[in-house]
Amino acid sequence: MVSGVSTLPRKEFGCVGATAFGDFLRFYRLRASLTQEELAERTGVSVRAISDMERGRARGPQRRTVELLAGGLTLTDDEAVEFAGLAQAGRRSAPPDDKPEPPETPLAGTACALPPVLTELTGRQQEQRTLDGFALEAESSARSRTTVIHGPPGAGKTALAVDAGHRLAGRFAGGCLFVDLHGMDDEPMSPHCAMQRLVRGLGVDERKIPADPDDRLALYRSLLQHRSVLLVLDNAANEAQVRPLLATGPGSMVVVTSRNTLVGLDARHRVTLELLDVDGAVELLGVIVGVRRVEAEPQAARRVAASCGGVPLALLIAGNRLASRTQWTIAHLAGQLADERRRLSVLTAGDLQVRAAFEISYHQLHPAAAGMFRRLALVPGDDTSVELAAVVSGLPVDQAELALEELADASLVGLGDTPDRYTRHDLLRVFARERLELDESAEDVRAASARMRDWLLSVATKAALCFDHDRLEATTAVDGPDPVYDRDSANRWLSRELSSWHGALRAAAECGEHRKVLELAQALHWYSDLRGTGSLWREVFTAGAAAARELGDVRAEAEQLNYVCWALYSLCGKPREALAAHHLAVAAATQVGDPLLEAWALYYRSAIERRLTSPQEGVQVARRSVELFERAGYSIGHYLALSLLGSILHSAGEFDEAVAVHRRSVAHYRATAAAPGNDELLSMVLTRLAESLTACGDVAAALDLLDEAEGLFGKHGVSAGVARVRHLRGCALIKAGRLTEARDHLLAALRDARFSETRVDTMVLLAELSDECGETAQAREHRVRALAECGRYDTPAIRRTAGRLAGELGLVVPESA
Asked: How many CB atoms lie within 10 A of CB 338?
């Protein structure tokens, strides 16, 4: 007895009964204590096939199936030989009226043989694993499974499908059949022509294939009815071309590739083939030209990969050019590709052309979609909304959306992270610009650019004014679709369309549209307080100051220079440059004679003094700022200046006074929190009070205030504010001795830290926590990162921190540093 099962008697192969193989299969399975499902999972053979074999319905399985079963059942060598002999005998003894077993593989040399794999598939491991899973599902299914692989031109859809065919064919008893449907040709292959090729691939003599389409379809279906095959239908034009070819039997898998998404096809699975990231693109380049050559010029290889936009076809062409020109450096090719006007011409190697691949899809578009594709080349950002696309194309919004959907179905634009956004990749944008110059007049292009620029600037100005505490009732007329209707929609629009409105601002400055530039820069002042980067606001407010100067508006110039000053010291870590901007702002403010401008200038000066000279000097300047705001009766400035004074007092070690000053500011904003936007200012002053309370030892109160502030920041989607809260919470938890929790919050703070000193402080604290936990290597890593971060900022405090870090790391720092 073995596992409770009687031993089966040995049999001579010539005397095997009709179910002998099935009897032995069942015996060995029970001996191994396996269910049919477990054996199927172990071997990759479907549950249905195992069941049919055990019941004698499948009397002589193919050699590959027997090998898989023998391995899964862990048969001895003698048992495996006998097992294979039983299967062979079963095939010989099948009665004439049995349905014929499908051939193990398609007939060699037929029209349906798989093409060879010419280049190693690179960067598609995830897609390969996905297709493997689909194949396993198909094997155990009572019906065939269809998978559509779609993606932009040149993405490598055929290469992935052919790779799948070669890797997975052995899992299907009938092997793999392949047919190129020529979907992008002027005359794609008809379904009946494709069917004729497939029937020939299944071993039917050409002379026996019916001429009548219905009879041919019936023959095709009968041939596949009981066969398990992998059918690869490459380069499909549309759903109608594919549907008649899906008549495969149970346990089969159909893989369809197409540039079109084929949304009307009843497909079990879909694989969207994205473009390669830079690392994957460099890896593919190395496969083609040689790893050593790529490793010798890593930066140049990355520039080539970036210029190719992650398109495998472009990388293949670039690699072939390098491989055939051994005297070239990779840097030489990178220089050629850097010129967008030449890029598509450079990406040509023999009959391989990126431009030609794009043109095929472009010429199949309807006129409105083709026009939309061209005009999207004018959009500054990497993606677009339906409204922006409507403006630049000149189409109504509903028609613009239809055109975008056609482009998405043709894989000429991608789908964004929300339903109303569409993305583009660089090479298609370069091609679209070429078509724009070829197919449209310069006058029409200029008009479309101006229309788009005006719309972006007007919407951005209206959206930014939703955050302006001084002009909450102000409105800006928008000529065209208006996506801004409240503060939340304004916040979303400014964030999502950042690259577009930023590009429009640059273009307006170049065109001398000074009034529009200044209006947007002025509107963005309050929005910038809690959002955006230092480099962005430095550029925006510098452009605003230049525009004001051109317009002769000295007061506006002083305002904008104050904002430049703020961006430089607060976000960019450049207090010396901020001081230079401050002097210009003071000169302009003096010329105007406005006390509010003087108060703001002192406000910003106090923060510079804290960084460049001493906190005590900053305190003196901040007190004068508070007095001037109070004298002018400007409450917003007065309580913000109080909050900044409290922060500088904290830096000076005057914690008790800092807490008292902060409480006055917090009380004001609590009382006025119902006013639009004031809860954001409340969240900011709460964090400052919490920091000072922590320093005074009142950790519990500080943590409560930080919870409240985080809720307010989160409500308005201010990620930098949330990061600041997490940094301060980490500091408070350290003071409370809760080190594990502190480390978690500090690590979370690093991702979105906005202020110049915060990232350095956070990494220094993490290093010290790692020391406490005995994690020497982790502590060193945090110190190295903090030291590198110090190089971005120019303040005495940061230089002292850098010196201390260098000493802790055992590094020698030049005295000049």
From this structure: 14
Q: Does residue 21 have a pLDDT over 90? A: no
Side by side, the strands of the sheet bearing 383-385 are 383-385, 421-423, 414-415
Rounded to whole angstroms, the Cα distance separating 686 from 466 reads 23
Say which DSSP state 817 is in.
Answer: -
pLDDT digit string (tens) for 216-253? 888 988 888 888 899 999 999 999 999 999 877 888 89
Q: What is the DSSP string of 531-600?
A: SS-HHHHHHHHHHHHHHHHHHT-HHHHHHHHHHHHHIIIIIS--HHHHHHHHHHHHHHHHHHT-HHHHHH
CA dist., res. 69 & res. 63, Å (int): 10
pLDDT at position 543, please?
98
DSSP string, 46-82: -HHHHHHHHTTSS-S--HHHHHHHHHHTT--HHHHHH
Task: Work out the angle at residue 464's Cα, subtended by the Cα atoms of residues 459 and 466, and round it to the nearest 5 degrees.
Answer: 105
Q: Distances in Å between the alpha carbon of 142 and those of 125, 128, 226, 268, 352?
A: 28, 23, 11, 13, 42
What is the spatial distance between Cα 662 and Cα 270, in angstroms, rounded to a whole number?
A: 57
| pLDDT tens-digit map of 583-623 | 999 999 889 988 899 999 999 999 999 989 999 999 999 99
Longest dimension (CA), the chain: 115
- pLDDT at site 123: 87
Task: Report pLDDT for 100.
Answer: 41
Average pLDDT of the residues in 303-313:
93
What secondary structure letter does DSSP report for 5?
B
SS3 643: helix
Q: What are phi and psi of 145, to 5 degrees?
A: -120, 135
Tens-digit pLDDT profile for residues 469-525: 877 555 678 888 999 998 889 999 999 999 999 999 999 999 999 999 999 999 999
Closest to 427 in 3D by CA, of 437, 415, 413, 438: 413
Q: How far apart are CA 610 and CA 589, in angstroms?
A: 22
Burial string for 762-790 (b: 16+ CB within 10 Å, else e) reads bbbbbbebbbeeebeebbbebbebbbebb
Which whole number is the average pLDDT over 280-294?
A: 92
d(C-alpha 500, C-alpha 494), whole Å:
9
DSSP letters along 117-184, please? --S---S-HHHHHHHHHHHHHHHT-SS-EEEEEE-STTS-HHHHHHHHHHHHGGGSTT-EEEEE--TT
- The percentage of the chain sitting over the pLDDT mark of 90, rounded to a whole number, equals 59
pTM for the whole structure: 0.77
261 and 408 Cβ atoms separated by less than 8 Å: yes
Return d(Cα 286, Cα 136) in angstroms, integer: 32
- Above 50 in pLDDT, residue 96? no
Q: Please provide the average confidence, as pLDDT, over all residues in the chain.
A: 87
- Percent of the residues in the chain that have a pLDDT greater than 70, as a whole number: 93
Whether 173 and 228 have beta carbons less than 8 Å apart is answered as yes
From first CA to last CA, the distance across the chain in angstroms is 83
Entry field: residues in the chain: 817
Whether pLDDT at 268 is above 90:
no
Which residues touch 201 (CB under 8 Å, ≥6 apart)? Answer: 106, 107, 110, 111, 112, 113, 177, 179
Residue 310 CB contacts under 8 Å (≥ 6 apart), including other chains: 275, 276, 277, 278, 280, 281, 425
Task: Please state the separation of Cα 221 from the chain's center in Å.
Answer: 43
User: How many other β-carbons are positioned within 10 Å of the β-carbon of residue 64?
Assistant: 17
| C-alpha 91, offset from chain centre | 53
| Sign of the C-alpha dihedral computed for residues 749, 754, 759 and 760 taken in this order | negative
For position 108, what pLDDT does the model report?
36
Write down the pLDDT at residue 111: 54
Q: How far is CA 549 from CA 544, 561, 563, 594, in A?
A: 9, 11, 15, 17
Contact in structure between 272 and 126 (CB atoms under 8 Å)? no
